[in-house]
Specification:
It is a single chain. The protein has helices spanning 3-16, 29-50, 55-64, 69-79, 84-106, 110-120, 127-139. With 147 residues, the protein is mainly α. It has one domain (28-144). The two termini are 17 Å apart. The mean pLDDT is 88.
């Protein structure tokens, strides 16, 4: 992987989420309570996803199903872009995707690995997800032909 590829991938992180700045106005009590409630559910979602029995179940919990983790973190980050718990859960989600994708790669499930990598990059572009993506493209170029 070249430095240029890594820098481009990292630049994508700036496009995924609003700037991590505290809100311009103090949050109302209702907004703070909403953030607390959503973060409670988000932590539970990460635990459920890690224990998922299939890639489909994992994806549903993380980014595709109703009340998925991505939507929850988006809501928190809209209210408070600098929320440390939301930022930490975003990174944790990307790592969970990398772990799950790596397990799929070990089984030579390249299409599934690629799908998981792309979903994970909706949370955060990490060096590990980039490497997995490049590995899939190297080992199964047809999967990445549309890039």
């Amino acid at each position: 992987m070249s430095y240029r590829e890594y820098a481009q991938d990292q630049a994508m992180n700036g496009l995924l989420w609003p700037p991590a700045q505290p809100p311009g106005q103090p949050l109302s009590a209702e907004q703070r309570q909403e953030i607390d409630d959503v973060l409670y559910l988000a932590k539970d979602a990460v635990s459920q996803a890690v224990a998922a029995k299939s890639a489909e179940e994992f994806s549903a919990i993380m980014s595709k199903g109703a009340n998925n983790l991505h939507d929850m973190l988006t809501r928190v980050r809209q209210l408070d872009g600098a929320n440390a718990q939301a930022l930490g859960l975003t990174t944790e989600a990307a790592q969970a995707y990398a772990n799950y994708a790596r397990a799929q790669m070990a089984q030579n499930k390249f299409a599934e690995t690629y799908r998981l990598v792309l979903e994970g990059q909706n949370f955060e572009h990490t060096r590990e997800l980039l490497r997995l993506r490049q590995d899939v493209c190297r080992r199964s170029p047809a999967i990445c032909a549309g890039e």
